[in-house]
Structures are given as structure tokens and as C-alpha cells.
Amino acid sequence: MSVAPQYPVASVDNALRLLSMFRTQGEIRLCDAASELGVANSTVHRLLAMLAYHDFVRHDPATKGYRAGPALFDVGLSVVKRMDIRVRARPFLEHVTATTGETTHCAVLQDANVRYVDAVESPKALRVAGRTGTLLPAHCSSAGKAILARLSTEEFGRVYRRERLIQTTARSIANRTALAEALVRVRRVGYAVNVEESEEGVIAVGVAVTDDLGGTIAGLSCAAPAMRMRRGRAAEVARVLKAAAAGITASLDAPGPDTP
């Protein structure tokens, strides 16, 4: 734990403590923040007004609460960008592809979508093409479902406010209720499967990647033509992916990316 500064600035301390509340809460109410900080409602109101002015929080008129603003997300994303999950994940993606012979992806969650940030393509003539840079509905992808399975009930509700979901193929999950039920199984077995839900003729297996504190930072997936990804093989591929995800997590404390 860091040592408290000799000359603390109360207003800065309170503002930072306010922002820290978003670690565990999706929305902050004025009275709750005042109680947490031990100050008057008027003091918290002034702090939130200034944070809102700089886009660190956003006021929700419907609930009268405050949510994390775009500036707060931008700061967090800039830190992640500097760490660059692609640098850490790349050798593990290469290892998974070398082991399975199939295309491997790394993806990150963006609202209700996943962004594919890197891929290593299968060397086989008939293969799934890399999707680096592509944005896809999270519930239609194995990596996305693996990440979604780690969200809290509250976080899931914020991401999916409506019952009806976008379908990219006829096999895509069509509603929030069905998605929630599917995620129960993902949590139980520890990996997700996408059976032609994002692209016809393609089956993929996905797992989540966590940091050393247990926070979810990305998802890994291995995709193959349906004829090569039978039910039994999905479990085998999942074991390879889980080992790769664990390796990425372990590498986060290292000065450079480890090799499997």
C-alpha cells in the first residue's frame, strides 16, 4: 500500500475516491457518495459537477445517478494500449495455431461487441481467415461469450438492455434470455463454443484472459471449418486455449512476453 502524502489535498483525494467507486459500482448516487466520503451532499455535488465538466462522469437524468464518463474510459484504454495485449498474446497465439493447426484470434470487449486485435492464420489451404480489426457482436463469437460469461449480473444488464439481439447468421443467439442461459454453461465448462453463429461453416472455441487480479482483459478463440471442429475436438482445443490464456496472465508481470 502506498504511503499517504505529507500534505494531502482534500478535494483531490475526494475526487479520486469518487472515481475509485466505479471499480465496484456501475452507478453512483449522490447520497451514497457523500456517505462513503463522509462529506456533505453539496460537497459531493460540486465534485461530481467538475468531474462531469471534464467528462470523467456522466449524469443519468432517469436514475439521477452518475456513471463513468468517456474520459475515464479513455484513460483506462490508453494504459491498456501502452501495455498492448497483442504484444503479450502474440507468441501464445502462434503456439495455439502451431498446436491445433487452426486460426487463432485475440479479441477485446467494446460495449456489446468484440474487436479482434490480432490473429494467426492456419497454414492449411482450407482455413478461417484472420479477422484482425473486425468488430463483431460479442454474443455471436466464442471469445465474446467467454468474456461475457465473466460479467456480473449488473454489468450484463448494462451491456444488454434490450431483449432482442442482432443475428449475424440464422444460428446466432436471438435474445438476451437465451444468451444468459448459454453463459451459464460457459461458466460451468470454462469455455465458449460458437457453432456457425458468426459465419456459416465455421466453428470456434473461446476462453477469457484475465490479469493477475482476476479482471478480464481479453478473449482468445480458435476457429476452424465445421468439418474439422467436431464436438470432442472442441474440448481438446479449449485445453490448449486455457493454457495459452494462463501463460498470457503470467507474462503480464514479466519485462517482456514469455513464450509457451
3D architecture notes:
With 260 residues, the protein is an alpha+beta fold. It contains nine helices and eight strands. The protein has helices at 10-20, 30-37, 41-53, 70-83, 85-100, 142-148, 153-159, 176-189, 231-251, and strands spanning 57-60, 65-68, 103-110, 113-120, 135-137, 192-195, 202-210, 216-225. A six-stranded antiparallel sheet has the order 5-4-3-8-7-6, sandwiched between helices. Helix 1 packs across helix 3 (41-53) and helix 2 (30-37) crosses helix 3 (41-53). It is elongated and about 65 Å long.
Q: Approximately how much helix is present in the residues?
A: 40-55%
Q: How many helices does DSSP assign?
A: 9
C-alpha-based Rg, rounded: 21 Å
* Secondary structural class: alpha+beta
Please state the overall shape, judged from the principal axes of the Cα atoms: elongated
Strand order of the largest sheet: 5-4-3-8-7-6
Number of E-state strands: 8
- Average pLDDT for all residues: 89
- Describe the biggest sheet? 6 strands, antiparallel
Which residue ranges are poorly predicted, with pLDDT under 50 across at least 5 consecutive positions? none
Distance, first to last CA: 32 Å
Strand content: 15-25%
H/E series, N to C?
Answer: HHHEEHHEEEHHHEEEH
Short description:
The chain has helices spanning 10-20, 30-37, 41-53, 70-83, 85-100, 142-148, 153-159, 176-189, 231-251; strands at residues 57-60, 65-68, 103-110, 113-120, 135-137, 192-195, 202-210, 216-225.
